[in-house]
Amino acid sequence: MKINYSHLLLGLLLPISYLQAETTALTPPDAKPGECYAKVVLPAEYETVKEQVLIKEPSESISIIPAEYDTVKAEVEVIPETHKLTPVPATYKENVETIVVKPAMLTWKTSLDEDAKPVSPVLLSTVTSSGIDTKHAQPGDCFREYYIPRKFKKISEEILVQGEHNETEVIPPEFETIEKTIIVKPASKRLVDVPAVYDEVEEKILISPEKTMWKKGKNPAQKLSGATGEIMCLVKVPAKYKTITKRVLKEPATTRVEEVPAETKTIEVKKLLSDSQIKNTLVDAVYISVEKTALEKEAQFAWYSSKNKVDNKLQFSGQQVCLTEEPAETIEVTKMVLNTPARVDSEVMPATSEMVETQELVAEAKVVKTPVEAEYKTIAKKKKVTDERIGWKRILCQTNMSKDIIATLQKTLNDKGYEAGEPDGLMGRGTRNALDKFQRENNLATGGITYETLKALGITLNHQ
Hints:
Elements: H1 6-11, E1 35-42, E2 45-56, E3 59-65, E4 68-79, E5 82-88, E6 91-102, E7 105-109, H2 121-129, E8 142-148, E9 151-162, E10 165-171, E11 174-185, E12 188-194, E13 197-208, E14 211-216, E15 227-237, E16 240-251, E17 254-260, E18 263-274, E19 277-283, E20 286-297, E21 300-305, E22 315-326, E23 329-340, E24 343-349, E25 352-363, E26 366-372, E27 375-386, E28 389-395, H3 403-415, H4 429-441, H5 451-457
């Protein structure tokens, strides 16, 4: 049995958990001649947002303004009864809080292995339409496709190999031989052609005008993550001309008339005595018995949980979907939480009297409370802006690369101190090492010649 998996294989390149089906143009939009594009899975885009997290709650600081006194000469209390105020500062304790900066994500894949590939929306839709409740599946759940093969039966059929027909027998005619003089060729006039005279001239004609056309690209010079393998390049096809040699009439053709005498010949001829006759004989039709294999029942497909036992008659088709969970990313933030608030302890100091210069209380001691603002820490979180999608991305490939571009790249790398070797237009090991070193030192993407690298080197392609 032959099963067509081409649509399913294409779908395996698309993450299911958050990729929505999009319609992608058959050819790249707004392309220019000489440019190459590849149809790729464009990753989801995120933006970094800042959020303030409370690490120390608001509180109060306490200070004491001491009492004020005047000195007087009288028998008075030297020191009246007062209160001794002792401030006790607030105490804090550390509280570690876990902040989620990237939530956990669920993805349908071909297995529970870490390197398993995501499945396509088409395949997941097939699983759901078969009756599997994928919305309530748990991480680690797997579902497999099973099938019952086609069932065939043997039938016998009579095949006509030769129909009923007449066999014809021909009875030849009878002749006698006689002599006869005949004119083999009658007298006539013959026209003799006098050919025309021509001169030869050369002329250049347009075979096909200049045009642009889409052409399949191959051998990308730039490695792309998530590429589907389909590369399209808009190339310029130059006009085609052909030089032909024309014959120009110089003198037109003419004819002249010549007399041709008749020609005779004596030959032996046959005189018909009796004409040929046809004799028909009827022959019966001929049949043979042929045994045929006919389809009795088509193959049947169904999806079952990998945890369930299936009937032995069912065969595993090789298709499987599993729900996997990518754990959330978190960071730990230490907060200062108020344990005990600030307070003032009061102690009574008894009055003292004697005949001396004394101090008279003018103003009592005061407690001043000053608010202390809360402390916050700013953390960065990633927020998804767009989902993954399919689109065209401009690349360098064999179609729009040339030895001249590579030679220019080698010379520029050499001028900047990167030893790329002789500018021979060939991507050898020395050139690749020099290119990789330049990309790493300038924070550029590595893995091949990219448009960003050419721009950083100041190299402009003639088709840009």
